[in-house]
């Protein structure tokens, strides 16, 4: 059984209005009521209201494991936050949360990844963990798996968001259980991370100790530097699944993503990109395609690849591109009567993989390298073959589409 929840910020869409998906957060807490065990994977974890909820669960005897990134991944730029008089940064809120874990099993996943030279400094570290998902066990063997686009983060801009909840779906439960088991083994408790930094100084030296190679999944899968599917890098596997999903379309395709610029895959030649798959379907099948993003190429700091993808899809008779800045943050595709819900942006980075890469960093004016690392972003993906759920996602999409501008 599946439930879907959605959130669209209320007008006026002020640039200095910073929220944390309040209605989505309430739905999450309601869905978790009565849980016997909870695991959560968050890109950002700085919401004191969410943390108070998990602390209360843990204090009442429900084991709770939270896995997120180190403080080095949070912005220290202050901004206006609803409910607070003075400006606060994401880092401010995170420091408060991290300093008081309570009885929560609080863990960090410090894996960093870069394709080219990257500066290493607090607030600018590139951490690979981007998945926003949860797995909960309930009395009687019941289970729920959550996948959301929301960071639930304070000092984040107010965005459109969605959350998918799968209840007692055996293959989904198995995939989430394996993901959290392996992620937990590859993460560090707060005190262990502190010792790791004393010994190594930089997160760049962190390595995976537990590598897995899983059989190809059915409805839910994950990418990560420690995950392979049938010997292949999990990120390459994820792109292939999405492209096959697109190529099999017969009636319609809807793409809703913060960014869409997977046009020229990193480190690969002869590999079909998501933009190329969309163009192929538009030309060969004439299927109506709607693409909605948050930004155009002109609104991105590094817009070359976005410009290439945008131009590549321009002028197709059955494909229309719109954007709604700065609102759209959802990440999903609807193909016919099925939906792929994901936490990855549709850019080249989340689908890049290099299993034996020498990473190059710069810190304190010195350049150093770390050999034999893995370039990989951590994300969650889920396919729902349910016409009713697809209709709910389409209704949410239409709400955004009518407010969007043509590219």
From TrEMBL:
Residues 324-350 form the PLD phosphodiesterase domain. InterPro entries: PLD-like_dom, PLipase_D/transphosphatidylase. It comes from the Bacteria. This is Phospholipase D-like domain-containing protein.
């Amino acid at each position: 059984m599946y439930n879907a929840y959605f959130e669209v910020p209320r007008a006026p869409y002020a640039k200095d209005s910073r929220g944390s998906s309040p209605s989505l957060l309430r739905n999450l807490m309601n869905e978790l009521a009565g849980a016997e065990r909870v695991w959560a994977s968050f890109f950002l974890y700085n919401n004191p209201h969410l943390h108070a909820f998990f602390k209360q669960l843990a204090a009442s005897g429900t084991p709770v494991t939270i896995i997120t990134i180190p403080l080095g991944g949070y912005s220290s730029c202050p901004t206006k936050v609803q409910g607070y008089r003075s400006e606060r940064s994401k880092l401010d809120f995170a420091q408060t949360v991290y300093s008081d874990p309570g009885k929560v099993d609080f863990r960090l996943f410090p894996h960093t990844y870069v394709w080219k030279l990257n500066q290493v400094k607090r607030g600018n570290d590139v951490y690979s963990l981007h998945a926003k998902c949860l797995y909960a066990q309930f009395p009687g063997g019941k289970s729920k798996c959550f996948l959301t686009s929301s960071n639930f983060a304070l000092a984040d801009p107010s965005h459109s968001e969605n959350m998918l909840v799968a209840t007692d779906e055996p293959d989904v439960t198995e995939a989430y259980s394996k993901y959290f088991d392996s992620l937990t083994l590859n993460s560090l408790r707060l005190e262990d991370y502190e010792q790791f930094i004393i010994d190594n100084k930089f997160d760049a030296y962190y390595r995976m100790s537990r590598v897995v190679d899983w059989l190809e999944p059915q409805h839910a899968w994950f990418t990560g530097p420690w995950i392979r599917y049938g010997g292949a890098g999990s990120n390459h596997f994820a792109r292939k699944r999405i492209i096959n999903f697109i190529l099999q379309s017969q009636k319609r395709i809807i793409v809703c993503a913060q960014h869409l610029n997977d046009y020229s895959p990193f480190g690969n030649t002869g590999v079909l990109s998501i933009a190329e798959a969309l163009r192929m379907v538009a030309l060969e099948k004439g299927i109506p395609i709607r693409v909605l993003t948050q930004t155009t190429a002109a609104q991105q700091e590094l817009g070359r690849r976005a410009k290439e993808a945008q131009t590549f899809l321009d002028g197709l008779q059955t494909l229309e591109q719109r954007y709604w800045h700065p609102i759209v943050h959802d990440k999903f595709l609807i193909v016919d009567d099925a939906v792929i819900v994901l936490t990855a942006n549709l850019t080249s980075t989340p689908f890049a993989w290099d299993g034996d890469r020498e990473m190059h960093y710069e810190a304190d004016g010195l350049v150093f390298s770390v050999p034999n690392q893995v370039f990989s972003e951590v994300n969650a993906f889920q396919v729902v073959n349910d016409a009713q759920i697809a209709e709910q996602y389409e209704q949410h999409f239409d709400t955004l589409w009518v407010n969007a501008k043509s590219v």
